[in-house]
Amino acid sequence: MQTTDATQQLILRLCDRTALLAINLLYLIIWGCAGFDKLRTGVPSWFGDKFGKTFLAQIPGLTATFWLLTASELLAFALSLVALCRLEFFSRKPLFLILTLAWSLIVFTQLNLGLWLTSDFNATPQMFAFFAGTLVALSYIRSFTLRPSVDRNPFPTT
Fold first, then answer.
1. Which of 89-106 are b and which e, b meaning 16 or more Cβ less than 10 Å from the residue's Cβ?
2. Does this model's pTM top 0.70?
3. pLDDT per residue as tens digits for the range 36-54
4. Where do the structural domains in the chain lie, given as residue ranges?
């Protein structure tokens, strides 16, 4: 009976660690691809046409808006990379992964603002889904850090 309990606990720990690793890798990919693509290509030719009639053209300016968004995405990537390098998916206190998700909420808000300012209502539901998915991931990780470690039988036989 002890072997079964130990096996179940091991499986639960592996599932938790795998979920944290998957979340970490997902945001590393999202922000790495988005940020480095912007660095590689620079301000796109369509950017002025799309945002030129919004207040972003004046404050902080189109070029600054683009590079601030790029910096935000790269910061989210860096936070995710630090979490991965620290092997936080093995930790019960994944500080940088939590920071990655919290900062991701800010970046998704920036992206959503651009969609609303340009009346791009077709893409706003997708951005809302990204935001909501990030909240779910953040809630999962927060619950993971607050619950007691798996040291008792999660599947009682009585």
1. bebeebebbbbbbebbee
2. yes
3. 999 999 999 999 999 999 9
4. 19-146
